[in-house]
Design goal:
By secondary structure, the chain is of the alpha+beta class. It contains 6 helices and 3 strands. A 3-stranded antiparallel beta sheet has the order 1-3-2.
Length: 120
């Protein structure tokens, strides 16, 4: 596997790496997207009301906006069941599931950082 630092010596590879990073960050930007994705990894399929309860501090409007964007970007699947009252479930697409290792790495990084800061 090629080291990321090798990109600095090859302008074309550096530009590709930079462009890919920007695209990834655009998909994940927003205060709540990673939290929403983490909840979907933990539950596989979740109803809107359950998701709203599990994401502490998010407003309903913001949750709807973030879910719409995640759906538009192909990370989340929204399934509407034709019943009264309406039932809406959210799950990860294959593309969304491919973020699993990255989200796990971010969580572990945050846990380690918390452990470092709690010790002094």
């Amino acid at each position: 596997m090629e080291s990321e630092t090798n990109y600095y010596h090859d302008p074309e590879k550096y530009q590709q790496c930079t462009s890919a990073t920007i695209r990834a960050m655009q998909l994940l930007e927003g205060k709540w997207k990673l939290v929403i994705l983490a909840q979907l990894f933990a539950t596989d399929v979740i109803r809107f009301s359950e998701l709203e309860r599990s994401v502490d501090g998010v407003t309903q409007k913001m949750l709807i906006q973030q879910l719409k964007q995640l759906e538009k970007d192909g990370l989340v699947l929204r399934t509407v069941y034709p019943q009264v009252p309406p039932k809406v479930e959210y799950s990860l697409t294959e593309f969304g599931r491919s973020l699993g290792p990255a989200i796990t790495a971010v969580r572990k990084w945050a846990e380690a950082r918390g452990a470092v800061h709690s010790h002094g």
